[in-house]
């Protein structure tokens, strides 16, 4: 059986888009349950301005409240140096920075051009290197942008290479609005793989159009072995109109098992966490 890792992003990418302000205690309970499931990495929250994403305003409280388990890296998203410093103070084991492959989404999500956003991230990368904190990178809208339409694979490759050059040990490729077709994912990966080997890449596919699993299969064929998912299919992005949930962890884990891939996850715990997540969303 080949090993495939699921990187759980539900508490961050999943919950950030929920309208109801979810109490920190509920978020902590979800992370604590996920910590029993066998993940090696869990993205817990993000240190972003509350006026951009109100749901993540309790990031420090959530980080302080979780019961950390050995062998799990608790990761957070940071948009700038201020966010990074708050993440470090909260004891994040890993931080992620994020950039867009299209100018339209960069403007909407980061209030900056791609070049400006990368310049803003450079000091975060330098600080993480100095502190010895692992740095992950995301590229958003790797095939389809809600503002600019189709995204050129070369743009994705360029931004992914910039994140690698800044020191990201892994770059996660985001189909932010879940509209990618497997052929587009394949063409995008062909370009990105000219710059980075598959072991430094992850697939981050939202399931809006129901094609995330096909896109993951296309990525497995290209050698990728890490995929981001959100338990209960939570998710979306407040600055990406039309973005629905991330691919559901339980659906992906079952699909991978059928394909002969070992995720090392405890499916009974995953199912419990999925039910909890759906309840938080109000759709249990
Ligand atoms: P800006 O408004 O241009 O920044 O936003 P600013 O520096 O002018 O700051 C605005 C205000 O926020 C100021 O306060 C700052 O002090 C404060 P004011 O003077 O107005 O009272 N501030 C902060 N507060 C708390 N924490 C901070 C912080 N920084 C500044 N870290 C910025 C620029 C990049 C900050 C903003 O655009 C931003 O945070 N964008 C991120 C939005 C976001 O979180 N989106 C969702 C995550 S990305 C995603 O989901 C995609 C992904 O899943 C992959 C995929 O699916 O593609 C990763
Ligand atoms: Mg996302």
UniProtKB/TrEMBL annotation:
Keywords: Lyase, Metal-binding. It holds the Pfam family HMGL-like. Residues 4-271 form the Pyruvate carboxyltransferase domain. The keyword Signal does not apply. GO terms for biological process: ketone body biosynthetic process; L-leucine catabolic process. InterPro entries: Aldolase_TIM (IPR013785), HMGL (IPR043594), PYR_CT (IPR000891). The keyword Lyase applies. GO terms for molecular function: hydroxymethylglutaryl-CoA lyase activity; metal ion binding. Belongs to the HMG-CoA lyase family. This is Hydroxymethylglutaryl-CoA lyase. It comes from Paracoccus versutus (Thiobacillus versutus).
